[in-house]
Amino acid sequence: MTRETTPHHTDKARETRGAYGARERCEPTPTPAARARTVLISGASIAGPALAHWLARYGYRPTVVEWAPALRGGGFAVDFRGAAHLAVLRKMGVLEEIRQRRTGGASMTFIDARGNHVAALPPEFAGGDVEILRSELSRILYDHSRPTPTLHDDTATPAAGAGTAYLFGDSLTSLTETADGVHVTFEHAPPRTFDLVIGADGLHSTVRRLAFGPEEDFVSHLGYYVAGWDLPHGAAPDLAAHAVGYNEPGRLVTVGRVPRRAADPSYAGEAFCVFASERLGHDRRDPQAQRTALVRAYEGAGWRTAELVGTVRDADDLYFDAISRVDAPTWSRGRIALLGDAAYGATVGGMGTGSAIVGAYVLAGELALAAGDHRRAFARYEQKLRPYVSRCQEGGRGTGAFLAPLTQEAIAARNSALNDPAALTAMLQEGHDISADISLDDYPSLVHHDTGSVRNATP
Q1: For the segment 58-83, what is each residue's pLDDT rounded down to a tens digit?
Q2: In terms of C-beta density within 10 A (0-12 exposed, 13-18 middle, 19 or more buried), how is residue 369 classed?
Q3: What SS3 class is residue 149?
Q4: Bridge-partner residues for 41, per DSSP?
Q5: How far apart are CA 352 and CA 150, in angstroms?
Q6: 111 has which bridge partners?
Q7: Beta strands in 359-436 (DSSP E)
């Protein structure tokens, strides 16, 4: 099961206003003096490299800072669905590469404590139009954003349009806006000043904390936690032989194998868990505390849950976080703006990856058209995108209750809906309609780096 996709429940069907439109726009031609040239982007997962890709094409000089020492491997699968997602990927020139690396998708069977089939999810329910491992998507976007060598310090900056500089193993410690830029200090690198700073650093955004306020002002806990990890060597070979999910009230465990990874001899399968809980008091940066909390949450569960959850003790890597939602009243302050989960995240089920890709396209396009006026660009970006991502976020509000219903009666009702072809079709269609419910401008795509002028062209 992917982290991205769960059904979106609403009281009535929404009317799709259009998948994506191509509207010609006549805008002032930016000049090199007017346009902000250097942009610091915090976060190298999905939104950050996607934004860097577009900004480099528009003649900006992006630098991406990432606290991890390198791009992360493994992890969940993510998906794209609907015309808007696919249109942006096609414009970026990455859609076919993503299709070549698609996971292959898989159905999942819900079982009872004896292992009997009680309901099923078809591959398209979790996998959308195209599904890919998050780590492979991140690598594709990274490669497309940087034809220049990776930088591990600030000793060089690529020429306009030459690609993106990446600064791994570092993080921001302060942001100070001046009359003509943002002065940035880092944990390790020397201070620098950038024309703009963009926080694309996820639910627990450092940029949002430094520039907008503490996390608790923006992030709401939705009553559940989610966890996932690759099964370690030594796990029972039959544990992941079939993709199955087992529910008890307030708890879900799933296990299976992603077809794309099946040829890897070191890959034994993966586990995914969702459980109801008040906010835990553990340090989210403490993996041992997370493992302890996870094992405790599943004490006494049936089927082979104790065996499955117990494998987390020997797992090399664990994803563990609250199912939460980000609601930022504004996405920008001065020369600093937020993108993706940092601005409008929903941990699971909110189409976060697709929204991040669309958001990066819109933000970069508006900056390219704004003739150096970042306030105008940021305002247009938020005006165009907020209604769309707010609708997408609504899916995340009910994700925990759908995956891990709180009562046995609610589990039975969920399973009944999944076993009803008409209900399942309606849920799938609603997700596609929401993901397509935005009209995208056909932004200019080519920049003359010698003059700074922008001309329209189809990517």
Answers
A1: 999 999 999 999 998 766 788 888 88
A2: buried
A3: coil
A4: 64, 198
A5: 27
A6: 117, 246
A7: none
